[in-house]
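ok new one. same drill as before - structure tokens go in, u give me an amino acid for every spot. 138 of them this time. try not to just spam alanines like last time pls lmao
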């Protein structure tokens, strides 16, 4: 069991890395669907402590926005981006799909996608090396 655990963890790292890479590629592939911009207003900011990890309790901020497109109001929608500095009344620029304005995204799709791909590649490469190392020691 002692030898099996490091190998399983390295395989999990490879799988997680591949998932991150796929998510990043998907974001890049669909970024052109978000073809319009609108200014939204922050209408609610909710903060709660995430205590799921007793060693790393952190404050999680969820921001809700209202926006209007072609006379249709979208109210109390979870914002695609949020931080603890946002407050009620703030204006934020978001992207939306002109074919389906209920689908929104943060303005920095490309940056987020690239970060996902890089993190995924690092996880996958590290997991592959750890797996190979586990087999060699086997």
């Amino acid at each position: 069991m002692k030898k099996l655990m490091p190998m399983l963890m390295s395989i999990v790292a490879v799988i997680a890395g591949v998932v991150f890479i796929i998510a990043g590629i998907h974001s890049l592939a669909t970024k052109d669907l978000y073809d319009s911009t609108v200014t939204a207003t922050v209408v609610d900011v909710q903060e709660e402590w995430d205590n799921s990890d007793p060693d790393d309790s952190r404050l999680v901020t969820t921001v809700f926005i209202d926006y209007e497109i072609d006379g249709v109001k979208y109210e109390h929608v979870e914002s695609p981006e949020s931080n603890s500095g946002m407050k009620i009344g703030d204006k934020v620029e978001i992207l939306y799909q002109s074919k389906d304005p209920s689908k929104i995204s943060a303005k920095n799709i490309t940056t987020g996608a690239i970060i996902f791909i890089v993190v995924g590649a690092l996880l996958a490469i590290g997991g592959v090396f750890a797996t190979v190392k586990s087999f060699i020691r086997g």
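The chain has two helices and five strands. and btw Strands lie at 36-50, 58-69, 72-78, 91-97, 100-105.
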